[in-house]
């Protein structure tokens, strides 16, 4: 099975990552186990040291209490001390049992057995002295110094030896933990060294697997660069190198095809360059005839341009007059609109006056009623109200006159309102008519404007056509000079075709055969066949609108006709 370069490049870091994960996991598990064991051992050792220290402190406390008990003469003090000594002894016994349970090694058990025996001796001496205290009397101090204190010293020395043993074991445990860590570190270093060595070996193998095929590809590319297109590319590889070799093979095939086409094109260019010279002669005659036709067309276009320009000027003048008329009609329409507005305002004011007159009439009517009531009241008053009745009568007369005057004014105002409304309708009709006049004048102005724009556009386009004809005449005259240059270019093209053929000679397409060999000159009949249709080429361009169509010549043989038709089309485009 062939692996790709991508897979080869990925397999090494993948294996390295897998090994690192395995090593890291194993190291982590081993370290965690060692730490757990070390922590357990360290904790147990610390607990034994703490218990042993507590045991030693309680022993010293009980020793001091025993001395005080033996030396005191008070019964109450002695009883209290004995109670404390008993409680402390019970606690010491409990500590001793816990230490014995935690001690697992032989030296610890031997040390504890020594401590237990010394304690028994110490307790025996203490109990004996306590029991014989009364009988000893003044000799109690001597017995304490000769019996109690040596037993206590032996007991405490045994305890210190046990504590020293535990301290030594703690130091040894720390040393073992350090050694275990170093062994773990060295084991990891060894595994990593093995991984690095394997990585280097895999790298060397990977470089060899990649570089050797790439060197083959480089040699094949170098041979293609030197022009050797005959080599066979190795096949059967399924990796990226195989893809590059397939691409080089496809490129070599494409180069073979391209070089063959270049060779055929060079031969065709040599043949076609001779035909170009023949076509140049026909082009020269047609160019002269085209130049004379263009001169006649240019003079006709100048006359037509003058006529259209005069029409455009007349249309422009008519457009100005129409614009003036439209502006005047627009002003008249605005004045009529203002008159309509004023008439509407007058109508509104007249209606308001009529309403006010109605109010005055109502006030006069109310005043007449009030004056009538006042006269009635004055008549009832008799002689005293006669003067007031006269005044009320005058007021009533004035009110009646005011009411009559208000009615007359109201009738006049109503007549005026009707006339104003009639005039307003007439003015509105005049405004509508004026707007229609303005719209008509505007439409006429727009039509004249369109005519003016069309005439101006025609004048401009004719000017452009005239300019284009003049330029075409100039270019036609220049083409006459270019025909000679084209002949020289045809000769140059032929020389370049020869040089192109010599350039591709470095390529080898097949075993023992070069790419290009100079072609033999074309035979005379083929050259005659290519030039014989020249009259056809000369007579086809006059098929334009300015020159009458020339009669078609007799048909030529089929092969020659195809070449001549292609040449004629090319020269017409030129």
Mean pLDDT: 73
Largest sheet: 2 strands, antiparallel
CATH homologous superfamily classification of the largest domain: Aspartate receptor, ligand-binding domain
Helicity, in percent?
over 70%
What structural category characterises the helix and strand content?
mainly alpha
Describe this structure as you would to a colleague:
The protein is an all-alpha fold and 574 residues long. The protein folds into three domains: 5-217, Four Helix Bundle (Hemerythrin (Met), subunit A); 292-482, Helix Hairpins (Orthogonal Bundle); 520-573, no CATH class. The protein contains ten helices and two strands; from the N terminus they run H-H-H-H-H-H-H-E-E-H-H-H. It has helices spanning 5-71, 75-102, 106-131, 133-136, 140-225, 240-381, 386-503, 524-531, 534-539, 558-573; strands spanning 508-510, 513-514. It has a two-stranded antiparallel sheet. Helix 1 (5-71) packs antiparallel against helix 2 (75-102).
Give the structure's gist in a few sentences.
The chain is an all-alpha fold and 574 residues long. 87% of the residues lie in helices and 1% in strands. The chain has three domains: 5-217, Aspartate receptor, ligand-binding domain (Four Helix Bundle (Hemerythrin (Met), subunit A), Up-down Bundle); 292-482, Helix Hairpins, CATH 1.10.287.950; 520-573, no CATH class.
């Amino acid at each position: 099975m062939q692996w790709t370069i991508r897979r080869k490049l990925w397999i090494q870091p993948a294996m390295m990552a897998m090994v690192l994960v395995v090593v890291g996991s194993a190291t982590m598990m081993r370290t965690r186990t060692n730490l757990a064991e070390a922590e357990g051992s360290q904790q147990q050792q610390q607990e034994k040291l703490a218990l042993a220290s507590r045991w030693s402190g309680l022993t010293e406390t009980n020793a001091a209490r025993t001395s005080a008990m033996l030396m005191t003469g008070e019964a109450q003090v002695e009883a209290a001390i004995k109670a404390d000594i008993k409680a402390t002894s019970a606690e010491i016994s409990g500590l001793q049992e816990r230490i014995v349970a935690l001690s697992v090694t032989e030296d610890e058990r031997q040390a504890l057995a020594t401590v237990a025996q010394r304690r028994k001796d110490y307790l025996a001496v203490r109990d004996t002295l306590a029991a014989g205290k009364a009988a000893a009397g003044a000799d109690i101090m001597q017995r304490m110094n000769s019996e109690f204190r040596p037993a206590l010293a032996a007991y405490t020395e045994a305890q210190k030896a046990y504590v020293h043993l535990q301290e030594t074991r703690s130091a040894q445990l720390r040393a073992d933990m350090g050694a275990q860590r170093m062994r773990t570190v060295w084991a990891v270093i060894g595994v990593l060294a093995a991984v690095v060595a394997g990585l280097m070996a895999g790298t060397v193998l990977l470089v060899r697997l990649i570089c050797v095929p790439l060197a083959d590809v480089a040699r094949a590319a170098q041979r293609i660069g030197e022009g050797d297109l005959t080599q066979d590319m190795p096949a059967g590889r399924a990796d990226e190198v195989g893809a590059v070799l397939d691409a080089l093979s496809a490129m070599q095939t494409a180069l073979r095809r391209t070089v063959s086409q270049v060779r055929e094109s060079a031969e065709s260019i040599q043949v076609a360059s001779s035909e170009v010279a023949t076509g140049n002669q026909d082009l020269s005659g047609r160019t002269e005839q085209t130049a004379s036709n263009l001169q006649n067309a240019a003079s006709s276009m100048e006359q037509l341009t003058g006529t259209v320009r005069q029409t455009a000027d007349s249309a422009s003048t008519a457009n100005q007059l129409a614009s003036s008329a439209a502006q005047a009609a627009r002003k008249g329409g605005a004045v009529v609109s203002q008159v309509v507005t004023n008439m509407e305002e007058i109508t509104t004011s007249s209606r308001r006056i009529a309403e006010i007159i109605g109010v005055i009439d109502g006030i006069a009517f109310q005043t007449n009623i009030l004056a009538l009531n006042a006269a009635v009241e004055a008549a009832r008053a008799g002689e005293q109200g006669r003067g007031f009745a006269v005044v009320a009568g005058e007021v009533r007369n004035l009110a009646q006159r005011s009411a009559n005057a208000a009615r007359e004014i109201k009738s006049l105002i109503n007549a005026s309102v009707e006339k104003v409304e009639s005039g307003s309708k007439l003015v509105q009709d005049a405004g509508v008519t004026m707007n229609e006049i303005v719209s008509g004048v505007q439409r006429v102005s727009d039509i004249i404007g369109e005519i003016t724009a069309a005439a101006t556009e025609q004048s401009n386009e004719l000017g452009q056509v005239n300019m284009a004809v003049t330029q075409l005449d100039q270019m036609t005259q220049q083409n006459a000079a270019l025909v000679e240059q084209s002949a020289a270019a045809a000769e140059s093209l032929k020389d370049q075709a020869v040089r192109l053929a010599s350039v591709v000679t470095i390529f080898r397409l097949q075993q023992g055969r070069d790419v290009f060999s100079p072609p033999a000159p074309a035979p005379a009949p083929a050259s005659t066949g290519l030039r014989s249709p020249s009259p056809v080429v000369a007579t086809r361009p006059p098929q334009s609108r300015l020159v009458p169509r020339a009669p078609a010549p007799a048909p030529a043989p089929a092969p020659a006709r195809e070449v001549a038709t292609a040449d004629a089309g090319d020269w017409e485009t030129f």
